[in-house]
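Morning run. Coffee first, then this:
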Amino acid sequence: MEYRRGTLLPVQQVRRTSLIAQVTEQLRTEIRSGRWPVGSRIPTEPELTELTGTGRNTVREAVQALVHAGMLERRQGSGTYVTADSDLGGALTKYFADAVERDVLELRQALDTHAARLAAQRRDAADIDSLRQHLEEYRQRPNTDDAAIHADVQLHRAIVVASHNPVYLEFYDSLLPVIEQGIRSRTAQAANTYHDQHAELVDAVIQGDPEHAARVANCLLSSLISEYSGR
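And here it is:
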């Protein structure tokens, strides 16, 4: 407010949005729109510099802001990946990052079991194609290969996608980084690939058998929990 001749007159405030904030919002929009889906790697820093028409320092700060928000994760030697598509999901991702693996597996047992049941009831043609593609990608890779681990994670996510419950999916997405970390840790210590169980799970969902799908998902996670407890 401005004081003039004894009268308070309203003065319009000037809003200044920093360039970093603008680029951060651009990146956030790409994530929220699904153009950069959860689990995907975003463009490199030079590519983002060209896409946004800004300097590398601006891009670096914008990316770091979303890392702090929990929406992005930097992986040494690999790139920067989308871990959540909302600030809420990002907050959950940061919370789960410090969780004990056994606790995450027990939570996944409940989530994956019910997601499999819903997916078998609600999957459509696009879901079926996606599940088959992810399963094939998972089978083609050596068990300890990063691409196979990523395919494993995306296969389970595809089942949640097939449940057609967006709230379920957002919560599950917040778990993906810690799920992937757990898979990486287990595959480094065990030879069991669980390929047959994954194939049976996908087949049950595709065939529209909710009880069989739920049973297979529950048994798969029970095996993982037993494997963890036996270390």
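The beta strands are 2-4, 7-9, 72-75, 79-82. Good start to the day.
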